[in-house]
Amino acid sequence: GSSLEAEEHSMEPPAVPEEETPLTAASSPAGCQLFGYVGIEAVLDQMKIKTMKMGFEFNIMVVGERRAWGLLPSTMVNTLFKSKVSRKASQAGQEERIPKTVQLQSVTHVIEEKGVKMKLTVTDTPGFGDQINNENCWDPIIKYINEQYERYLREEILITRKRKIPDTRVHGCVYFVPPTGHWLRPLDLEFMRRLSKIVNVVPVIAKADTLTLEERAEFKQRIQEDLKTHAISVYPQEDFDQDPDDRALNDRIR
Question: What ranges does the record list as Basic and acidic residues composition bias (predicted)?
């Protein structure tokens, strides 16, 4: 029976495979052209083109006591981004008046470099630490940061959300440490201890050129010891050390 079935099947005409129609520009809709080779290796180029077209958003907050030390965080920000992105006075030739309270003020600029656009938002905190009683002076800053997280989350959980959600979250907080040359003050420790739990804190020694190289190195060592003693985790945190390459880079930054 098996041999007969084999003969019956062999007598059937062989099935002619249907000719596959190659995908060309002619078979596509009118006016539509193919983009060439499509593969896994082309994903990075596609993501790069899309990201450069949309641009980046970076929100930075600068915090520092000014009245006692004459610190100007805006000068550091202008130097960092090679443009005037700080808050200016309303009239030319007049010094900006420092508020008596911590009033957060944000300025947004669009910076372009070699075809890459970045929407930079600088949030200034004038009046921080300038009072005689600085108790709970960090509350307005913490409230502002949490509000930005909540605003972004409300937009993200919507069913019909926007294609691109405006990102107002604070990505990094630059905290300017007064150049005392000794230890971190209780105000510095308390502020970084509270803020390091909700935002990336980057401590920066302000007016470091007023210290000698030996004093600056010793001051940095004391700051690191204070941060370790009080369990303050500044950027980069240890949570970012999962990849070996990232761990080596983060160790160098620390």
Answer: 1-11
CATH number at residue 193: 3.40.50.300
Residue 134 domain flag: yes
- Report the domain count for the chain: 1
Domain ranges, residue 62: 42-85+100-252
Is this model's pTM higher than 0.90 or not? no
**Closest by alpha carbon to 110, among 100, 120, 101?**
120
Which conformational region is residue 86 in: left (phi greater than 0), alpha (psi within -120 to 50 degrees), or beta?
Answer: beta
Q: Please write the tens of the pLDDT for every residue from 21-64.
A: 454 444 445 555 656 677 788 888 888 888 888 888 999 998 88
Domain assignment present for 158: yes
The residues near 22 (Cβ < 8 Å, ≥ 6 apart) are none
Q: CA–CA separation, 215 vs 180, rounded Å?
A: 10
What are residue 116's DSSP bridge partners? Answer: 113
Burial pattern 42-60, b for ≥16 Cβ within 10 A else e, equals: eeeeeeeeeeeeeeebebb
Taking the C-alpha atoms of residue 178 and residue 68, their distance in angstroms, rounded to an integer, is: 9
Residue 6 lies in a domain: no
In a domain, 4, yes or no: no
